[in-house]
Specification:
- It is built from 3 helices and 2 strands.
- The protein is mainly α.
- It has a domain at 4-41.
- Strand 1 (84-85) and strand 2 form a beta hairpin.
- Helix 1 (4-13) packs across helix 2.
């Protein structure tokens, strides 16, 4: 079990101020957590392959394509915008 002094040292390293009562409480809680992690170390993982996440999902990307449109389509888009500057659509700033 972690001592109160060890918990205070950990808190100091993490730049967290804790009271003596909190150190006593966290001593038991952190010891329980470390005990659970130690129990996980007992699990047989000899033939288990490492995975990044449990779902097996993969990132799917596609190639960017340039699609040319007619001048009428471009003009229609520009004409539908409420604000314009020259031939560009004007939008609100994000930042």
């Amino acid at each position: 079990m972690l001592s109160k002094k060890e918990v205070q040292k950990i808190a100091s390293l993490a730049r967290i101020e804790i009271t003596n009562e909190e150190a006593e409480k966290y001593s038991k809680e952190l010891s329980d957590i470390l005990g659970f992690v130690e129990k996980l170390n007992e699990a047989d993982t000899e033939n288990v392959e490492p995975i990044a996440h449990i779902t097996g999902a993969k990132n799917i990307t596609r190639e960017d394509k340039i699609i040319e449109h007619s001048e009428n389509t471009k003009k229609g888009i520009i004409d539908n915008f409420p604000e314009k500057k020259d031939r560009f659509d004007k939008v609100k700033a994000v930042f």
